[in-house]
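4.2 Preliminary Data

To establish feasibility before requesting continued support, the project team ran the inverse folding procedure on a target of 232 residues. The structure was first converted into the token representation described in Section 3, and no sequence information of any kind was made available to the design step. The complete token record follows.
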């Protein structure tokens, strides 16, 4: 069965070249140019990965990514961007993106990024055997398969990246997990930009656990993180 790619790009010339090249490489591709029309295609096509330009007519890629992830939280979303500011890239990851490619790019890079995201998505549920259906973390209950964290205040719906990072932390309770190990396990790359994005996700996850004073994610400068759960 062919890998299905949902490609959203409004530049006609670029879009046509990328679509045809990916199809020649054996992928099944649906190409959409208008952000406002994306959601109606999502259910019927059921893609394995989404390649999404940030600058689109009618709706920007950040907003569109949030809509896509709300419907399909496990779907990898690769941003295409001409933006160079770190804040723009961080915003993309906060919206639910799982990788990014800077314009101009080579088709070889696109294919490598797509295959990497597919590998990470598969390993999220298959590496080292099936994940636990339920993990108790202090006052919380974490469901990796459902991307849910049950807190004293209700159910938190996690993004794929949230879940990947929390799964790593949850298997290292009260033990140091090295920053590089976490970056390589989740992103497959310990670049500066991925490192900055990890900081964003760690802050988010700390906020998720605010209702249990016995849980703390401690940053060990130059080393990594310590996910502490203490007894009452």
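Position-by-position output of the design step:
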């Amino acid at each position: 069965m062919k890998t299905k790619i949902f490609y959203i790009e409004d530049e006609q010339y670029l879009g046509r070249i990328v679509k045809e090249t990916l199809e020649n490489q054996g992928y099944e591709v649906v190409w959409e140019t208008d952000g406002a029309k994306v959601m109606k295609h999502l259910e019927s096509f059921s893609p394995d990965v989404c390649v999404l330009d940030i600058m689109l007519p009618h709706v920007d890629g950040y907003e569109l990514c949030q809509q896509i992830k709300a419907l399909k939280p496990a779907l990898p979303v690769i941003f295409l961007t001409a933006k160079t500011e770190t804040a723009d890239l961080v915003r993309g990851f906060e919206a639910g993106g799982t990788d990014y490619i800077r314009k101009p790019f080579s088709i070889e890079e696109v294919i490598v990024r797509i295959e990497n995201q597919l590998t990470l998505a598969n390993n999220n549920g298959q590496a080292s055997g099936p994940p636990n259906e339920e993990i108790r973390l202090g006052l919380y209950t974490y469901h990796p398969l459902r991307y849910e964290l049950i807190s004293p205040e209700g159910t938190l719906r996690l993004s794929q990246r949230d879940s990947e990072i929390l799964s790593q932390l949850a298997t290292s309770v009260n033990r140091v997990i090295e920053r590089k190990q976490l970056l390589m396990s989740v992103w497959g790359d310990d670049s500066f930009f991925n490192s900055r994005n990890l900081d964003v996700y760690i802050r988010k996850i700390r906020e998720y656990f605010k209702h249990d004073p016995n849980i703390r994610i401690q940053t060990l400068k130059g080393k990594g993180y310590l996910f502490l759960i203490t007894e009452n």
